[in-house]
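subagent[fold] <- orchestrator: predict structure for attached chain, return tokens only, no commentary.
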Amino acid sequence: MSYMSFRQARIFKLRRSLPWPDCNAFPRFRGSPSTVRRWAHSPADNSNFHSIVDNPPNLVKTGRRHGPGLIILALIPLTAFALGTWQVFRLGWKTDLIAKFEDRLVRNPLPLPPQIDPSAIKEFDYRRVYASGHLRHDQEMLIGPRIHNGDNGYLVITPLERGHGASTVLVNRGWIPKTLQRQADRVKGLPTGEIIIHGLLREPWKKNIFTPNNKPEHGEFYFPDVEQMARFTASQPVWIEETMEPDLLKAYDREAAGIPIGRPAEVNLRNNHTQYIFTWYALSAATTIMLWMVVKKPPSDIARRVRHNKEW
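subagent[fold] -> orchestrator:
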């Protein structure tokens, strides 16, 4: 053994007996850097030391989270589905209503009784009736503007005075062009003497919020307010719509002569609920797919990081 090897052996023996290794205690020692690091102080020698095993890291996600927009997006398909289901019930109700009215149309016309209970008209809505009497052209009322085949005009409303103790009723005779508003320009459309009116007994119309109010004192009528028009003409609030056969050539002749064009004897209720059902259910399905894509697909800026323990 060389002198240097013997000296190193003695130093190593002394270092094992020391409680705290200190390389500075041997200034003449010339060991390798790896040997010095091996005998340097380690944090594990401290009894208060906590390692990563004692405090494991937590993997957390960072980035944008779903906010109130997701809740709104979730409400859209639910609302659309509810509206579509409601339209299914509306379709059934409207189909039954049209079938009931069409059943009344095919029945034989009824003579209009001398006195009519207005509360019972609902049970005879769209029922064909006929009545005889004299038309009070001096109390004629024009409701307009009304469009017919793209032309502007008016609906002619004339009280029918039945006499013999029978009440006076209101008759919607049909449409005339605006150019024939004056009675002097449509003498052929003002029959005199006793006539027979064939038409449909109808329930009073309902006014919407966008229609202006009538001005009977000025002869301005924008909506068939049956109660108001009946009071204005001392008639019963009974509304009859005069009917005619749907003949195009005959309608042209009546329009040129100033004779009101009556309505056909048919049910003209709109039934678009099938389209509404398709629209609402399609919207519900589309928004449901969008919601699924938003929930399943993570935000584009998401990242992972290690949350450091504060006790390290």
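orchestrator: received. Logging for downstream: Residues 68-105 form the longest helix (38 residues). The longest strand covers residues 151-161.
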